[in-house]
Amino acid sequence: MRTPKPSKWKILAPFLALTIILAAACGGTEEPAGNGSESGEETSMMEETGMSEETTMGEAAGMDLSQLEVGPDEESSMMPAEGIEKAEAQPLPEDPPEGIEVYDAMTNELVEDASYDRSPPTNGDHDPLWQNCGFYDEPIDDATAVHSLDHGVVWITYSPDLPADEIETLREYGAERYVIISPYPGQNAPVTATSWRIQLELDGAEDPRLRQFVDDFRVSEIAPLSGNGCTRGAGAPAFSG
Fold first, then answer.
1. Is residue 79 exposed (0-12), middle (13-18) or buried (19+ Cβ within 10 Å)?
2. What is the reported pLDDT for 59?
3. Which end of the chain has fewer surrounding CB within 10 Å, N or C?
4. Cβ–Cβ contacts within 10 Å for residue 33, how many?
5. With a cut of 50, which residues of the chain have pLDDT below it?
6. What are the extents of the domains in the chain?
7. What is the C-alpha to C-alpha distance for residues 102 and 83, in angstroms, rounded to an integer?
8. Is 120 helix (H, G, I), strand (E, B) or coil?
9. Which residues contact 164 (CB under 8 A, 6 or more apart)?
């Protein structure tokens, strides 16, 4: 009796199975194109440099402020309130004080319930009213102070337990234009100087970098509404110019 020949599919089956196994081994773990390759390279670079998503722009840019611009989501066309003369914004300094930190641009919208992830805050959405300039001997509201930062104000905050003679030194800044001084319980440094997106922690009121910070960043061009005034707003300072 003649034995039937096996079909061609039975003959090819072992080879097809082997091909499928090899294909799975070589390409089964490959990620789809465009999914994760670039982010993987970026993650590797960030690990090598010690950077994270929360790294300040100042640290990442080596304190080169020439690249800073008003953010694309920041409103910069609003004019001052009636009766307030707009001050001319000044360019960012070429040689800023050592130790400043520069933060990313966000938005500067008027909201009723602003909150911040830094203390003192440096920028972001804020109260519809700004804080009047001058020296305060009681803490002021973050959201009104940030509105003043948006106008180009330098906000000097100090720890409530700062020695009286140093508080008196800070009080003198209250006579200057576009400067607010107030106590800030719980801040990290004895004295902190803040302008829109830029901050400097200081060991005391006599640190010469404080004077430089005020001169360098008052009415700075990086503040979206720089020069829009800090009078006729909220608060009654204990001393002002």
1. exposed
2. 55
3. N
4. 6
5. 1-55, 60-61
6. 85-241
7. 33
8. coil
9. none
CA-based end-to-end distance of the chain: 119
Are 170 and 214 in contact, with CB atoms under 8 Å apart?
Answer: no
Predicted pLDDT of residue 56: 57
Give backbone dihedrals phi and psi of 77, rounded to 5 degrees, phi first.
-105, -5
Q: Answer for the pair 74, 224: CB distance below 8 angstroms, yes or no.
A: yes
What stretches of the chain show up as alpha helix (H) in DSSP?
Answer: 8-27, 37-49, 57-60, 142-150, 164-171, 208-217
Q: What are the structure tokens assigned to 189, written together? A: 């440094």
Whole-model pTM: value is: 0.77
Residue-level pLDDT at 216? 98
Q: How far is CA 240 from CA 6, 134, 207, in A?
A: 103, 4, 22
Angle at 132 between CA 211 and CA 100, to 5 degrees: 35
